[in-house]
Amino acid sequence: MIILLPPSETKREGGDATKLDMTRLRFSSLTATRRRVIRELRALSQDEEASLKALKISARLRSEVVRNRSVTTSPTMPALDRYTGVIFDALDSRSLPVEARSFAATHVVIQSALLGPIGGMDPIPAYRLSHDSKLPGIHLAKTWAPVVPTEIGADGELVLDFRSEGYVALSPLAPGVNSWFLRVVTESDDGTVRALNHFNKKAKGLLTRALLLNARDLESIEEVIAVADEAGYRMELGDQKEVRLYAPKG
């Protein structure tokens, strides 16, 4: 089983003294592409105003440009601990027991715009780059889409795709992969079901945490639904390889 997560715009500061080491990242087939995207980002970071425009951030976030300038030499920490924001705050990786963190190391993949798919515990620096950022001389979707790792779902393993649609488009999974796209929905008092946008992130983080605490390599979407039910979350099959998660009320 693979839990495929989107990244977060925001990152936690700090880390240990170890700088970015490509050999410690999952999916070694992506090394050349990773180096290319990093080169383009660092080149862009030399021009502060161009960086703000390309990254679609305001002048008050100039510190993000500095982060990008030093991305190859700054401290690293496990990816699940590095990302902050709604999904990762709900997941709260740093409070997970050792067994759950060990399970995350082999069963969580995060779709980074800078590094492509990475392992949940891969050591990464802080950076700023989104799926819709504009790097001069490189188109992120056209760069990442052709090199999606064939290891993801290659043996028929279950892939739970919790990414946003923007990150799905950045690196679509290969045809035939046993993947299920998670759609977070809410149900009104009259029974009407509608998809959620921003508030779906917390539900994804809570479900990911429940699956990591369960720490079992599930083989079917029905098993996932059963684990979610045990944790108090309502899930059901949707259409066309989608599964619905009902956001907790309150």
- The number of helices is 10
The amount of beta strand, in percent, is: 15-25%
Low-confidence stretches: none
Number of strands: 10
Helix content: 25-40%
Q: Please write the string of helix (H) and strand (E) elements.
A: EHHHEHHHEEEHEHEEHHEE
Distance between the termini: 30 Å
Radius of gyration: 18 Å
Query: Structural class of the helices, strands and pairings?
Result: alpha/beta
Mean of residue pLDDT values: 92
Taken from the alpha-carbon principal axes, the silhouette is globular
Summarize the biggest pleated sheet. Answer: 8 strands, mixed
Labels describing this entry:
two-stranded antiparallel ribbon; globular; 10 helices; 16% strand
Q: How is this structure best described in words?
A:
The protein is of the alpha/beta class. The protein is built from 10 helices and 10 strands. It has helices at about 30-45, 50-55, 65-70, 80, 85-90, 100-105, 140-145, 165-170, 200-215, 220-230, and strands at about 1-5, 75-80, 110, 115-120, 125, 160, 180-185, 195, 235, 240-245. Strands 1, 3, 4, 6, 7, 8, 9 and 10 form an 8-stranded mixed beta sheet that branches. A two-stranded antiparallel sheet has the order 2-5. Helix 8 (about 165-170) links the parallel strand 6 and strand 7 (about 180-185). It is globular and about 50 Å long. The model has no long low-confidence stretch (mean pLDDT about 90).
